[in-house]
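Help needed: design a sequence for this.
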């Protein structure tokens, strides 16, 4: 989080605030109101497994399944990622990349690709990870002309993507419990055209699925990655510090909770100054931990909270109910993190995205 003055005690009281404040908002709209809705330019998208909703802050309303409303048909199952500014949706369950007009969400066309997942901004193109447990890789997509330019095989089911300006690092999806590979891609330029090729790979922990930038020894010019490894039944989950200059592992921090199943992480506070405290999504809760040996991990929010997103003077997040087919859109105060409001949402929400695509680090 870019506001450094938020103190640890605010987070420790977070779960108590949630339990006492949440309520269903009666203004929740199950049908669209043309007088309220003015377009996809000043709100946030809520991703479900098989639909995309839209939250319009000015009227404080959630519009469900905008794709179906605009196109007269559903998008399909397994929706993974939306890059709203480029109009790209990866539908993992449908084996396709869907292109929509970012102004009105009208479908333009789609490209078939094997289980596409994460989208990464790559100059004037987009990189999309794809694949199954047998094979996978990265696709380079020209989103303006809606063309698949190239695919590069990584040999495993690819997940998130990161670039340090020299190398492109492709993480695994985490579905294969023994996967430990991070692939390294390089770019080539020939006759004003750009292409990718696999240059190398490295073994990092067990199931390296997520990452955050970190400075090595608090030197802002010496970059590294704090890599979240999910572990498996025999190897505990961990955070591994990778030096991007030497491509060597500096430290490994193991979680102190048995059967801990982390899925994602983000920084609490500024990782370049003082204590390095992480928020970790795991076991349908949000935890807090510090990069010390051993790591001391405690519950921050006893809810399945997704990635936080800053909007104006608030943070927004969705919480999935793991028992009932309902979710909540939560609104928190920017400074105090008090729960301000909540709106009930049909279905199992997974993620909230802005109209301009951001990463978790940008949001915090």
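Sure. Designed sequence:
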């Amino acid at each position: 989080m870019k506001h450094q003055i938020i103190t640890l005690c605010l987070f420790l009281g977070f779960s108590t605030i949630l339990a006492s404040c949440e309520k269903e908002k009666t203004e929740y709209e199950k049908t669209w109101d043309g007088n309220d809705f003015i377009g996809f330019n000043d709100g946030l998208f809520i991703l479900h497994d098989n639909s995309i909703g839209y939250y319009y802050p000015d009227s404080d309303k959630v519009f469900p399944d905008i794709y179906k409303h605009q196109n007269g048909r559903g998008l399909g199952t397994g929706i993974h990622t939306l890059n709203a500014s480029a109009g790209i949706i990866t539908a993992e369950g449908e084996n396709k990349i869907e292109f929509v007009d970012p102004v009105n969400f009208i479908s333009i066309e789609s490209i078939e690709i094997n289980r596409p997942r994460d989208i990464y901004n790559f100059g004037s193109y987009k990189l999309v990870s794809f694949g199954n447990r047998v094979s996978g890789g990265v696709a380079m997509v020209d989103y303006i002309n809606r063309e698949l330019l190239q695919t590069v095989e990584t040999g495993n089911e690819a997940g998130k993507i990161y670039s340090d300006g020299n190398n492109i690092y492709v993480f695994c999806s985490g579905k294969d419990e023994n996967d430990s590979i991070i692939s390294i891609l390089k770019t080539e330029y020939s006759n004003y055209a750009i292409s990718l090729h696999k240059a190398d790979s490295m073994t990092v922990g067990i199931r390296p699925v997520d990452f955050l930038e970190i400075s090595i020894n608090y030197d802002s010019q010496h970059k590294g990655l704090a890599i979240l490894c999910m572990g498996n039944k025999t190897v505990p989950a961990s955070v591994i510090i990778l030096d991007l200059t030497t491509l060597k592992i500096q430290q490994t921090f193991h979680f102190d909770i048995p059967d801990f199943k982390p899925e994602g992480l983000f920084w609490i506070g500024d990782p370049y100054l003082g204590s390095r405290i992480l928020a970790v999504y795991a076991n349908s809760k949000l935890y807090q931990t510090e990069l010390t040996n051993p790591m001391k991990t405690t519950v921050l929010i006893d809810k399945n909270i997704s990635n936080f997103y800053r909007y104006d003077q608030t943070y927004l997040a969705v919480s999935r109910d793991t028992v009932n087919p309902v979710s909540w859109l939560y609104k928190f105060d920017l400074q105090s993190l008090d729960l301000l409001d909540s709106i009930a949402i049909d279905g199992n929400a997974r993620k909230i995205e802005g109209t301009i695509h951001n990463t978790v680090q940008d949001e915090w």
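Confidence is low (pLDDT under 50) at residues 1-32, 356-364.
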